[in-house]
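Internal tracking record. Fields below are filled automatically when a chain is submitted to the structure queue. Please do not edit lines marked as system-generated. If the sequence contains nonstandard residues, flag them in the REMARKS field before resubmitting.
Queue: standard
Priority: normal
Entity type: single polypeptide chain
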Amino acid sequence: MENNRRNFIKKGASMAAVLSMGGIAYSCEEKKEIKQAVVKKHRELGSMAKDAGMQMSNAYFGGMEACQYLIELSKQIDALGAVAGIDKRIIGDPEAKPWEYESIKKVVDGWKAVGLNYNVVEGPPSLHSKTKLGLEGRDEEIDNFITFMKNLKRAGVDVICYNWMPVISWARTSMDSPGRGGALVTAFDYNEIKDKPLTEYGTVSKEKLWENLEYFLKAVVPEAEKIEMKLAMHPDDPQVDSIQGISRIMNTVENFDRMMNIVPSEFNGVTMCQGNFSLMGADIPKLVRRWGNEGKIHFVHFRNVRELSGELPSTKFTETFHDEGDIDMYQAMKAYYDIGFRGPIRPDHVPTMAGEKNTRAGYMDLGNLFAIGYMRGLAESVSKEQIV
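SYSTEM-GENERATED OUTPUT FOLLOWS
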């Protein structure tokens, strides 16, 4: 009995509560053990890595001037990762080649000058329709992309988020749908665009996109391996079958597995955009664990959505606040912690809130502020529960 009581004292989930229990007589030695255990737990909790070791970041696609308020907020809340493209406004020379080292270095230093760490290129230069559609000039684009990777790594950035959506990229049918409390959210309904005419490129088949993707990966992944550059494919958004005759192939989990098996490599991975994979029908925590344990998750878009079409992949959906959509966000964050993810993570497609103009739909300041606080609370919770 005495040994059992000692084990309870040492292993109980709340040591401090034990000290305050009435009606139980503890020896001086037992009280000393309890106090030592409490101090040890407090020290362990105090030494926890901030944000569970992940790089809390924000996207700044509008540029520094448009995002100045978000930059200041991010520094105050200590979310110091900056995700953006290669902004020629920072370079200061409209004729500069964005894949050259001098251009990249100016961008990296520009973010450092405002107190942020440029940690992900989202929307890399020299990866456009020539490569994705297999048009004349794609070899030059690919050569420039390889040059870009090497110079980016030299400048200290090792994650590139890219996609395989030629001609028509990120698409929504509404940028100001009413959300909770009148907040504005983006939404998509395929029925509203299904009859739009073909683009100038006519019908582009899935087979052609796969052929071009294989050509790209076989040229680029071996070079990425040499310099340890993490290539993070973003899913099609929306993840429908096609838009205006342009097929979509990065719209199922199975197709992502196929993509990564074209050139198997730890550097040929994914951007875990939760919203899109959820709208494909994936169990997000389960998928995070599978790809995470394979070392394939290089970057996370932590977002939530609500599916409205009744079919998967979804053809009708809306964005939501992080705490109200279809995804179990706590279990998702727990999965990232459990797999040991320590890379960049950012909120995505946040609502526009009261008092804001909807000038950067999905990326306004207050929604990002809410999201970071929510994410930080989840990160602290999942990390501390391993100790308490």
